[in-house]
UniProtKB/TrEMBL annotation:
Domain Aminotransferase class V: 5-363
Signal peptide residues on this chain, from the entry's feature table: none
Coiled coil: none
Protein name: Aminotransferase class V domain-containing protein
Family that this chain belongs to: Belongs to the class-V pyridoxal-phosphate-dependent aminotransferase family. NifS/IscS subfamily.
Catalytic activity of the protein: (sulfur carrier)-H + L-cysteine = (sulfur carrier)-SH + L-alanine
A single MF term (Gene Ontology): iron-sulfur cluster binding
Source organism (scientific name): Sulfoacidibacillus thermotolerans (Acidibacillus sulfuroxidans)
Pfam families registered for this protein in UniProt: Aminotran_5 (PF00266)
Cofactor needs: pyridoxal 5'-phosphate
Keyword flag Iron: yes
């Protein structure tokens, strides 16, 4: 029987064995509440703070600048709402290609009376710094632009934008969930005010994330009911998940060069294979993309039919963000890039990990080629 092939790592990644090993004691014997003063609680507290330190060091931050959250979605929400609640400014600038965690928060803020300007990308999914700057107003309280797009892998100009906004004294938040596994981040070199992270995109556990909040950034707590996270996010910390997140970051740093090389090689093998085996396909947003994410349009093929056919073969790909894949709507990212809806509905996302083998890549290419041809014949659009 053929082994399954998992090519949906932008949705979530497998748990690294070292992460699972490190978490195990905190799912059993080490069960104290980290807010408790007795030794059981303090044992848990030390584990949480050690994990916080590992993550902060990885991005050049201080531990006190890192807030643990339940994931990237909560981190995005806290960033936007927490900053605007602490300001008298009522305008926010973002892009049309953001994750729904940002876009739906913006919609909610608009319902509360805030104003939001949505900047469009170019045909490659790239948002120009000049477009962001042109949207600024005297009452702009925050700019939010993701670092790496979760559907196309397009890298946004966060370094330059952060410097431009710093000169103008405008705060910048970036959803860095997909950037953390692909881009070396140093907040001492990039003057961004807030960054969102998620554990399960880097071979860590689900249900844990973090918000980097640069010291001195105005912020009003959104989740209240306790003094955890320095009064910035109430609720008992998820100790086991925090430990797992910290170890996942340690492994990321230790394996960085090997992972980057391996994923780049996998991407090259995959695209070369497609080039030989399939006709009439296009890579979307490739000009400024990380190697781990490929968004591909297969002309004449319904993307959802291709995803289901491959799933029956034990091969996992997706039609876009896992947070919206069940909505059966065309990708807002690809539409914002100006891609016609018919082509958007023929587009899939394929995302790699460093664990995939060459044999698995070859098998994926073979089955994709088979099903693309079969579906085109069934649709009467064989090319």
């Amino acid at each position: 029987m053929d082994l399954p092939v998992y090519l949906d790592n932008a949705a979530t990644t497998p748990l690294h064995p070292q992460v699972a090993f490190a978490m195990r004691p905190f799912l059993g014997d080490v069960y104290g509440n980290p807010s408790s003063v007795h030794q059981f609680g303090q044992q848990a507290r030390r584990a949480v703070e050690q994990a916080r330190s590992h993550i902060a060091q990885a991005i050049g931050a201080h531990s006190r600048e890192l807030i643990f959250t339940s994931g990237g979605t909560e981190a995005d929400f806290l960033a936007l709402v927490g900053v605007l609640r602490a300001s008298d400014k009522r305008h926010l600038v973002t892009s049309r290609i953001e994750h729904h965690a940002v876009l739906q928060t913006c919609t909610w803020l608009q319902e509360l009376g805030y104003e939001v300007t949505y900047v469009s990308p170019d045909a490659t999914g790239y948002v120009a710094v000049e477009e962001i700057l042109a949207a600024l107003r005297p009452d702009t309280g925050l700019v939010s632009l993701m670092w790496v797009n979760n559907e196309t892998g397009t890298v946004q100009p966060i370094e330059r934008l952060s410097r431009e906004l710093s000169d103008r004294r405008v705060l910048l938040h970036s959803d860095a969930v997909q950037a953390l596994p692909s881009i070396s981040i140093d907040v001492n070199q990039v003057p961004v005010s807030l960054l969102s992270f998620s554990g399960h995109k880097i071979y860590g556990p689900k249900g844990i994330g973090a918000l980097y909040l640069r010291e001195g950034t105005p912020f009003s707590s959104v989740i209240r009911g306790g003094h955890q996270e320095r009064d910035r996010r109430a609720g008992t910390e998820n100790v086991a998940a925090a430990v797992g997140f910290g170890v996942a970051v340690e492994q990321l740093r230790a394996e960085w060069e090997d992972r980057v090389l391996r994923i780049s090689q996998v991407r090259e093998q995959f695209l070369s294979g497609l080039q030989r085996a399939v006709t009439h396909w296009r890579l979307n947003g490739a000009q400024h993309a990380v190697p781990s994410i490929c968004n591909v349009t297969f002309t004449g093929v319904q993307a959802d039919a291709l995803v289901m056919a491959l799933d029956l073969d034990g091969i996992a790909i997706s039609t876009g963000s896992a947070c919206s894949a069940g909505a059966m709507e065309p990708s807002h990212v690809l539409l914002a890039m100006g891609i016609p809806e018919e082509e958007v509905l023929s587009s899939v996302r394929i995302s790699f990990s460093s664990f995939i083998t060459r044999a698995q890549v070859d098998r994926a290419v073979d089955r994709i080629a088979y099903h693309v041809h079969r579906l085109r014949v069934l649709n009467g659009t064989d090319l």
